[in-house]
Amino acid sequence: MTNWLHTLLYPPRCPGCGRPVKRHGTWCSLCFQSVWHPRIIDGSRRNNLDGCYALTDYRGCIRRVLQQIKYERKFQYEAACLYLLSRFPWMRDIQLDIAVPVPLSLIRLQKRGYNQSEFIFRSWAETFTVWSDALQRRRATQSQWTLSRPERAKNVADGFSVKYGVRIQGKSILLVDDIYTTGATMESCAHALKKKGVARVTGLVIASGAR
User: Which residue has better confidence, 196 or 9?
Assistant: First the structure.
């Protein structure tokens, strides 16, 4: 379907409120201002993770958009995430050689059919760096949202490893995920990467409830 015909049949609307907008994926000014909060998350610099950036607050319309991508296969919201990523203000400040997504377990990947982090970030990341599925889950873990902060850290502790044959020694990694809550998952991923000689691991997420 050509772009003009697609636009005619499916007029672009704000992913937050449904108001008409100029292009698919564009947020209206009110919805954008309600969620846009780019920052380095307080407390995200840890033993292995060298800080994590978040673009928005995990609430309201952005929470709904991410949940619909993750659980309801609403792939039309990819453009809405790319709109936010294109406005990430510190891209030039990040040292990176490779972008790596937080992986799903094999069971969850087979059930869902896709990794939402790859779906959201890959096309954007490949415009300026190398994409690599360098990480794998060593074991299935319980869904983090059901757990307390200490339980989350225990749940993912030593839960990731670098895939056999992947060469990442001395590299700077951009570790991407959809949501940052306590940071336990990203810290565990960063630990696995640092064990294999990675020089730096910087996180980037679409949304976080942490300040």
Answer: 196
